[in-house]
User: What shape does this take?
Amino acid sequence: MYAKVINPKTNGQKVYNNAGSSQRCANYLVKEAKEAGGEATFFGAPGTEAKTAAEVVALLDGNVKGLGKDDPKFHSLVLSPSSDELLLIGNNGCC
Assistant: This one.
């Protein structure tokens, strides 16, 4: 499995800025899901209900106690399982 934490300094500070609001990141995820014919699903702690993009943005943007203006407020992680790993978890990668 390929895993990577997105670094805004090397992946476009204006496009992806994790020192401000998470709204732009949420909008991107919703847009990508719609283009793939699905709906963006956001999750939190185990055993909790799925959250909407607006709820996730409010939670992330409101959790800034002790953080400075330019400190990262959230991180984006890319997880890309192999085709064998997708089969193992019951997803053929098409949907």
